[in-house]
Amino acid sequence: YHLQATGRIVDTISRISHNLTGTFPEVIDEILDWAPREPRSDVDVSGGLSIDAYVEVLVRGRTSDRAQGNNPCPSIRQLSEHLTQVIAKGELDDEAARKFKDCFFVNERLFSTREGYLGVSAEGLREGDQISVILGCDFPMILRPRNSDQFEVVGPCFVHGLMLGEALKPPLKPPWKDVLPVTKGWALSYFIDAQTDELLKDDPRLGPLPTEWEEIQTLDPFLPPFVFRNKDNGHVSMNDPRMSAEFIEQRGIMLNTFHLV
């Protein structure tokens, strides 16, 4: 039996850490081994500082930069500064340990890819496994090639630069950056102007909704506060129609069909 899915293969895993279980202080040796050698200058695949990408992976995005509002999490800048100091001294201090309280592992591994993406996933991945972004999945997925068009599903992963659909959209241009304010218990992707702090709900990369669709509010506790309704047939969807395979390919992004086994 197999499941047919549509998406993109983004990259291939080329390096994997030792199996990690424990808190930040308990796995500090492996964390330092994977840290950027020049944290104030090394650049990652998305164009930002590698140290910023690294700390976001270590805490799985639990920072005040992403989840806005009443958020006790430290910022990426704070985490990067603390880890940079730990790298320079070669030893962990109590303040850094407190800042990285959300960094812990349970039978997991760090990994990097041929193009330079950095991520974390559960035990079981191998070098040569592929990072994919599949339509309808909340997380990037690790797939293992079986033959020309069949893949074994290894599991989900956290990858800096791929968590908000970046592989299926054009690049987000300055001054906009994506954030995740929590609305009625749902972390919904919004966009903030870094110069004016203007908050925009609609993704500036996607253009207007197709004329037959509208966005509506809902009070259903099992649905997000905003959904999409087709005005012609009344169909309601949690997924933005502009993120369908048809519209993604119209934006020039090639998709593939996978047979998942």
Structural class: alpha+beta
Number of helices: 5
Shape: globular
Assembly of the depicted chains: single chain
Q: State the separation between the terminal residues, measured CA to CA.
A: 7 Å
Q: How many β strands by DSSP?
A: 16
Residue runs with pLDDT of under 50 for 5 or more positions = none
Residue-averaged pLDDT: 91
Major sheet size, sense and barrel closure: 8 strands, mixed
SSE series: EEHHHHEEEEEEEEEEEEEHE
Q: What share of the residues does DSSP label as strand, in percent?
A: 25-35%
* Radius of gyration computed on alpha carbons: 20 Å
Q: How helix-rich are the residues, as a percent range?
A: 10-25%
Descriptive keywords:
globular, 5 helices, alpha+beta, 3-stranded antiparallel sheet, 261 residues
Can you characterise this structure?
The chain has 261 residues and is α+β, with helices and mostly antiparallel strands. The protein is built from five helices and 16 strands. The protein has helices at residues 28-34, 50-58, 76-89, 94-99, 245-250, and strands at 3-16, 20-23, 104-113, 118-122, 130-134, 141-145, 150-159, 176-179, 182-183, 186-187, 190-193, 199-200, 213-217, 226-230, 236-237, 256-260. Strands 1, 2, 3, 4, 5, 6, 7 and 16 form an eight-stranded mixed sheet that branches. A hairpin with a 5-residue loop joins strand 11 and strand 12. Helix 2 crosses helix 3 (76-89). It starts with a strand and ends with a strand. 25% of the residues are buried.
Give the SSE map.
Layout: E1 3-16, E2 20-23, H1 28-34, H2 50-58, H3 76-89, H4 94-99, E3 104-113, E4 118-122, E5 130-134, E6 141-145, E7 150-159, E8 176-179, E9 182-183, E10 186-187, E11 190-193, E12 199-200, E13 213-217, E14 226-230, E15 236-237, H5 245-250, E16 256-260
Parallel strand pairs: 7-16
Antiparallel strand pairs: 1-3, 1-5, 1-16, 2-3, 3-4, 4-7, 5-6, 6-7, 8-11, 9-10, 11-12, 13-14, 14-15
Helix pairs in contact: 2-3
